Amino acid sequence: MKILVVGGAGYIGSHMVKQLAQAGNDVITLDNLSYGYRDAVKYGEFIEGDLGDESVLDAILGTGDIDAVMHFAGFIQVGESVLKPSMYYHNNVVNTFTLLEAMLRHGVKNFIFSSTAAIFGEPDYTPIDEKHNKQPINPYGHSKLMIEQVLEDYDKAYGLRSTCLRYFNAAGADPDGELGERHVPETHLIPLILQAASGRREDIKVFGDDYATDDGTCVRDYIHINDLCEAHSLALHRMIKSDKSARYNLGNGTGFSVKQVIDVAKKVSGNDFKVSIEPRRAGDPAVLVADSTLAREQLNWQPRHAELDDIVKTAWQWETDFLSRQ
Ligand code: UFG
């Protein structure tokens, strides 16, 4: 297949591009490099351009040979979305809308959308399945849910097929050591902990230890980046074969507390580091764990890196390689 990967220079997008190319697909990355890195796109064609730029989209989609579009170019920081909602609605909603309109103009009818656990808001129950109420508690979650709604309507009216994949906590790095997580600023737990373990950071701050969980810290469902990408490939094949849209929650189904992740990182790295307890971070639900039964059953999806040690090991390899490159 020929696949356009929008945001293919970012963390998840770059791993996806590699996996698609290695499976024999023809891949084009479109990325404006606002958060991504040119050198993270190691496979296929690269076009520097913006998701909201109709002329670039027309040039790519107008060739008539694109089979599917995968969209990873969303903004992802919950806290920032509360402070700058306009930035989030503009990029995550308006620009995505521009992309969808271009797809319709050129008759490209298969779309894979990066959605998020944040569409569920404070969970009523865990693990969270697809039927769970969708009540986002921040602009980031709202922006993703709005596009899910647009996609539902476009499916019915225009036959645009979509698969929305709600990620829980994407983590880890390419086991070949070629790609990894490079957010600036970094806000995610595992890379921050490993930067403390390697000495790049003074300490790790735990945001709250008074939650209603076993050790008082927040519980999350960490899923390896390659397992996440594998689900995209399986979902794309199923969507094309069945000619049906779908939505899946993607996680391992096991929760780990912040303190447990810190312990695993200490074990994997063999290094001790300072841990300080800070006040809660706004907008953090106590527990977010996925029920991915639907993805396992319908897509025959089997996460290969189900152990947290294994996920953290790949991220640690990326962190130590980063230091040796400095
Ligand atoms: N945390 C800390 N210290 C840190 C960073 C994070 O204690 O320095 C805690 C957070 O409070 C949270 C947990 O570690 O309890 C995980 O935090 P992350 O920022 O790594 O991930 P989130 O669960 O907040 O966010 C992830 C994605 C978002 C997505 C969200 C869906 O990164 O894009 O899941 O709920 F919206």
Notes on the protein architecture:
- The protein has helices at 11-22, 54-61, 78-83, 85-105, 139-158, 189-198, 225-242, 258-269, 293-299, 308-325, and strands at residues 2-6, 26-31, 45-48, 68-71, 110-116, 161-167, 169-171, 203-207, 219-220, 222-224, 246-250, 256-257, 274-278, 287-288.
- The chain is an alpha/beta fold.
- It folds into two domains: 2-170 and 222-250, 3-Layer(aba) Sandwich (Rossmann fold); 171-221 and 253-325, UDP-galactose 4-epimerase, domain 1, CATH 3.90.25.
- It has a seven-stranded parallel sheet, sandwiched between helices.
- Helix 5 (139-158) links the parallel strand 5 (110-116) and strand 6 (161-167).
- Helix 1 (11-22) packs across helix 7, helix 2 packs parallel to helix 4 and helix 8 crosses helix 10.
- The two termini are 38 Å apart.
- The model has no long low-confidence stretch (mean pLDDT 97).
- The site of uridine-5'-diphosphate-4-deoxy-4-fluoro-alpha-D-galactose has 20 residues, from helix 6 and strand 8.
